[in-house]
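Hi R.,

Here's the chain you asked about this morning:
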Amino acid sequence: MAPHELEGEWLAALPTQKKMLFLASLSHELTIAGRSSYKPQTEELEKPSRLRRINEIQHRVASCLCQLITGQMSFEKSIAHWVLQQDDEEFADLLSWSWEHAKERTAKWDQAAG
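And the predicted structure, written out as tokens:
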């Protein structure tokens, strides 16, 4: 099984509250990843296509989160594919960083609540 498939299974196996927490955290981490598209110290974009790709992934993450909140059928397994299955190595590393930080944050919040 490919790494993104394993992560999709991991996400799907979480209780709904933890899924929502993870997706909210991933959403936050993706906004941080999007900042890598900015030209330093300006309002300009250095990598507009990267920002657009992150925005499209962010759109899917937010949609999945909304579906979970409203009790609709969700597509959380495919979120791992959208985030982690990237051809560009630099972009893949950036999104893997976002995924891992979201997992760490979710685990910390879970420990604090427990």
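Residues 3-43+54-113 form one domain.

Let me know if you need anything else.
M.
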